[in-house]
Amino acid sequence: MGSLLRLLLVLLVAVAAGAPAAHAWRKEGHYMVCKIAQSFLTSEASAAVTSLLPSWAGELAETCSWADDERRRYPWSGSLHFADTPGDCQFFYDRDCHNMKGEKDMCVVGGINNYTTALMNSSAPLVDPTISLMFLAHFVGDIHQPLHCGNTADFGGNTIIVHWYNTTTTNLHRVWDLDIIEKAMKDFYNDDLSIMTQVIMQNITEAWADEEREWEACSTRTKTCADKYAMESAQLSCDVAYAGVEQGSILGDDYFFSALPVVRKRIAQGGVRLAAILNRIFSESSEPQSS
C-alpha cells in the first residue's frame, strides 16, 4: 500500500506540473526561435511570410506559440509536437514517428515535413497557408528542445519529478521548457527577452559563425532535414537532459550550467533552420495566397 500511495503521489504531482503535456520552450523560447528566423529570411521569404500572418500578428514571432495555445481546437495535433524514442538516444523515422495509436507520420518530424509540403503547394484544396506557417514555425522550435525527443517511458521527462534549486517542485520537461530560460534571463539578461535574443543572434554571427552554414544545410528533396534535428535532440536528451537525474533529484547550479549552453544553441539552431526552410519554400514555389 505504501508503494501504491507513493506512485499516486508522483502521478498527482506530475499532472499538477504539466505532465504529459509538452509545450516546448514555452512562449519565451518559441518567440526567440522565430525572432532569430526573421533576421535570416531573404527579402522574398520575408514578404511571403508577412503576407500570410494572421490579422492579430505584426510579425512571425508573435504567432509561434499559437500551436500550443490552440491545442484544444486541434486535438489531433498533440502528437505532432514531439517524437519520443525508446531511450536508446537515437531517432528512427519508421520506428518512432507515430502517435499513441500507432498511426504513422504523427510526430514532430512528420509535422514539419507535412506543413513544409503544404506551404509549397499552398493553392491546393484544403490547405490554409496561414495555419500551415504557424504550425511549421512552432514545430521547428519544438524539435530543437531535447526532451521533445526524450524517452517514451517518462513522456519526455514529464513524469520525472525534480526540485529546481530545492525551492520549486516541477518536472524535468518543464525545467527545459521554461525554468532554465527564466533563470538565465534573471541572472544574465536583466529579465529582458529581447536582450537574450540579441545575445544569441550575436553568437550566431560570431562564436558560431563557422557552424551556422552547417546548421542550415539540407540537400533532401523534401526540403527539410527534420530527421537529423530529431536525432540531435535524442542524443542531447541522453547526454545532458537526463544525465544524473532521478525521481526527486535536486537540480541546481551544476545542472543549470551544463544545460544553458545547450538551450542557447538549440534556440539558435532552430531559428537558423526555420529561416532556411522558409527561404527554400518561398524561393522555389509560387507566391502563396493569403487566407
From TrEMBL:
Signal peptide: 1-24
Reaction(s) the record says it catalyses: Endonucleolytic cleavage to 5'-phosphomononucleotide and 5'-phosphooligonucleotide end-products
Keywords, alphabetical: Disulfide bond, Endonuclease, Glycoprotein, Hydrolase, Metal-binding, Nuclease, Signal
One Pfam family per UniProt: S1-P1_nuclease
GO biological process terms, semicolon-separated: DNA catabolic process
Any GO molecular function: single-stranded DNA endodeoxyribonuclease activity
EC number: 3.1.30.1
Enzyme class, UniProt record, top EC level: hydrolase
Superkingdom per UniProt: Eukaryota
SUPFAM superfamilies: Phospholipase C/P1 nuclease
Family: Belongs to the nuclease type I family.
This protein's name: Aspergillus nuclease S1
Organism of origin: Urochloa decumbens
